[in-house]
Amino acid sequence: MARDIKKVVLAYSGGLDTSVILKWLQTTYECEVVTFTADLGQGEELEPARQKALLLGIRPDNIFIEDLRETFVRDFVFPMFRANALYEGLYLLGTSIARPLIAQRQIEIAKQVGADAVCHGATGKGNDQVRFELGYYALKPDIKVIAPWREWDLVSRTKLIEFAEQHQIPIAKDKRGEAPFSVDANLLHISAEGKALEDPWLEPEEFVYSRTVAPEQAPDTPEYVEVEFLRGDAIAVNGQKLSPASLLTKLNELGGKHGIGRLDLLENRFVGMKSRGVYETPGGTILHLAHRGIEQATLDRGAMHQKDEIMPRYAELIYNGFWFSPEREMLQALIDKSQENVEGTVRLKLYKGSVRIVGRKSPKSLYSLAHVTFEADNVYDQKDAQGFIKLNALRLKLLNRQKQ
Question: For an engineered disulfide with 100, which of 9, 254, 284, 323 has Cβ 3.0 to 4.6 Å away?
Answer without folding.
Answer: 323
